[in-house]
Structure formats: C-alpha cells, structure tokens
Amino acid sequence: MIYKSKISLIIFIVFLSVINVSFSQTNKKTNEKDPSNDRLLISDSLKWSERMALSILKRNPKAWDIDYIPEPKWEYKVGLVLKAYERLYEATKNEAYYNYIKDFVDTMIDSTGTIKGYELESYNIDLINSGKLLFNLYDKTKEDRYLVAIKTLSKQLENHPRTKSGGFWHKKIYPNQMWLDGLYMGEPFYAQYTVEFENGKNLDDVAHQFELLHKHAFDKKTGLYFHAWDESKQMPWANKETGTAPNIWLRALGWYAMALVDVLDYMPEAHPKHQELVVYLNELAEASSHFQDESGLWYQVPNMQNKEGNYLEASGSAMFIYAFAKGTHKGYLPNKFETIANKGFDGLINKLVTVDEDGEVHLNQICKSAGLGGNPYRDGSYGYYLSEPILTDNSHGLGPFIMAALELRR
To answer: Which keywords belong to this entry (predicted)?
Structure first.
C-alpha cells in the first residue's frame, strides 16, 4: 500500500508540473500578443517593430493619447503612428493592431461619416494625413461612414487654397507657403484617392507639388531642401530673393523622403512623372548620405553637424531609414542605401533606444515640433531649431521607427 501511495504521489506531482509548464507557456504567449494584459511582457525575441508597437499599446491603450493630449483629436501625428500599425497588421495579422486603428477612427468618425472636430474651411493640410487610414477600413468593412469621410477630405483638397503656381498652401493661416511637411500630409492620400476613385486623373497634380518644392526649395550647395518656401517672399523668415526658409531641418527632409516613396506606390511606372519622382528620391538619398554621422544617425540641422548645440535626432533619422530601405526594396534606389538604412537603424538602437526591465521600449531625442511664423513667432534660425523641446516616445518618432524596423525586417 505504501509503495502504491508513493507511485500515486509521483504521478500527481508530474501531472502538476506538466499543467504548470503548459500554463506558463500559454501565459507567455498571451503576454506577448495581448496588449490588454496589464502585466504585458514584451519579449526580446520579437522584432523591434512589434516590441515598439506593444510598448506603445502598453503605455497608451487609446491611440489618441500617445502624446498625452487632453481629449481625442483628428490630427496628423496619430495618423502617422497608426499607418505604421496598419503595415504591422498586414505583416503579422495580429488583430490587436487592427483594433487599435479602428478604435481611434471610430472614436473620431460617427455613424454619418462626420469627423469629430474637423473643419474643412480651416484648410489645414495636416488634417488630411489620418485619412489614409480610411481606405483599408472601408475596403475591409464596406461601412459607408468611412467612404463619406474619405470624400470629405478629398473635397478639402479639391478646394484647398494654392499658390499662383499651383502648390497647396500649408494652411489657410500660412498663405502662399509650401512646407516640405505638407507633401507627406497631403500627397499620399491624394495619390491613393485619385487612383482608386478617379482612375488616376490627378497624378500630374500630385507630382506638381514635388516639382514646385524641387524648383524653389532645393539647395544646390548641399543637395538638400530648405524647410519651406514662401512664393510671395513676404514672410519675415523668407529669403527676399528666393522665398526659402533660412535653414534645413532634418524632419522636414524626412517628411519629404517618406512622401516620395509612399506616393510612388500609386504612381504607375509607365506614368510620365514616375521617373521624375524617382530622380528626386535618388538626389535626396545621395545628398543626405554625405551628412550621415558615423553613428548612423543624422543631426537636427543636418548640414551643421559640428555646430554647438546640434544633436542626433530620432524622428528624422527614422524617416530617412524607412524611406531609403523602402526605396531600395522597390527598386528606386541602388542597393547601397539598404546598407545606409541598416547603419542608421543600428544607430537608433545603440544611441537612442532604451529598454526597461519588463521589455518596454523607449525612443529618445525626438524633436517635439518645429515650424515657421505663427505666434509665438518662429524665425527658422539655427537657434530656433535647437530651442524646441526634445522628448522621449513622441509620436513623430514612434511611427517612423516601426515603419523602418518593418521595412528592414529588424
């Protein structure tokens, strides 16, 4: 009897061990894939794209709160991050990423297709950017409200104020001005809309926006672009002969580079403007490679690396990395730019990324914002670009980081 009891006890202990191992493995899988779990463990076996995406979900269960704003708002930065989640969902099929996008959009767009807080008449091109999320949602759900919102944003572009030469004003409050930022905010949406709903009839106009800034904001000395161009040459920050802003800003270049590679997704190779945009991308990639720091990163004011106060900036660097990697994979750029992109990503990981004990990932040295004019007045000087706050885990850097990691399969 004693012998049988010992055998039974051993079997029972083994059974408990098996159950415990099974539970632990199941729980580990849940922790890695279920962002609703408050004890979320972000495994270092995952790729950087998912490690960052899960870290954001852990910190900010609602996408509109990524930058800790007081209430939900339809604005470009959330659209930037969620476009990265859209690509991540396509790659992983993890429904948590899709749901994160849909929850934000459904918070902002009611059953009639009205966008909460959106005013078409403000003619702010930044407000177009989040509209890129609507195409996939409409394709997937066929809910009319998404289509209504798409049409509303398209109507803004249809009536958006323009320079005399045909360029979209950055905002109604910034008359006659084109900023590099605006090309990313408006052109990928414009290109996708005209291809999907108009048989591509306005692709020439999409390309024209790039042509104008290539003609007027391109700096022949560096091969880079000034932050903005004022066609009227009346703004205090504008060069009285050229209308250009006084300096080159890294993130503006990043917006421009991403705009090029994303618009090219909708510009058929046979289209007369396709190769022109590819040339612009090559010019920028080649010029910017000469300003890449030995760390792999780029400086806030990229052509003044050694000037006092300048710093390696995360968001613009990540934008370059994404654009150059995608440009290489699409065949627009020579293969050497994938090496440049990988060097840049190594720089992000080695210099600007920190990881908590629980695996949560943070991205540091992100410029909060930068612009021209306005109140308080922004003069575009070197000192101005260094005066803006430098943040950790700001959305400007998080979205491009995920996209760069995805594109490089890191």
So the answer is: Hydrolase
Give catalytic residues, as residue numbers: 181
User: Which residue stretches of the chain have pLDDT < 70?
Assistant: 1-40
Q: How far apart are CA 78 and CA 81, in angstroms?
A: 5
Phi first, then psi, for residue 165 (nearest 5°) are: -90, 0
Measured CA to CA, the distance from residue 56 to residue 97 in angstroms comes to 11
- The pLDDT score that the predictor gives to residue 165 is 98
Alpha carbons 270 and 79: distance in angstroms, whole number: 30
Please report, as a single letter, which amino acid is at residue 381: S
Please state, in angstroms and rounded to a whole number, the distance separating the CA atoms of residues 233 and 225: 17
- Strands 361-363 and 366-367 turn out to be unpaired
HSE (CB half, 13 Å, CA atoms) of 383?
Answer: 1
Residue 41: predicted pLDDT: 73
Complete DSSP assignment for 373-403: BTTTTB---HHHHHHS-EESS-HHHHHHHHH
What is the model's pLDDT at position 376?
Answer: 94
The single residue listed with the structure tokens 């493995």 is: 25
Structural domains of the chain sorted by starting position, each given as residue range(s) with its CATH number in brackets: 42-408 (1.50.10.10)
Count Cα atoms within 13 angstroms, Cβ side, for 50.
Answer: 22
Q: How far is CA 194 from CA 118, 129, 267, 404, 406, in A?
A: 22, 15, 10, 27, 27
Pairwise CA distance, residues 160 & 311, whole Å:
36
Count CB neighbours of 295 within 10 A: 16
Looking at residue 282, what is its pLDDT? 98
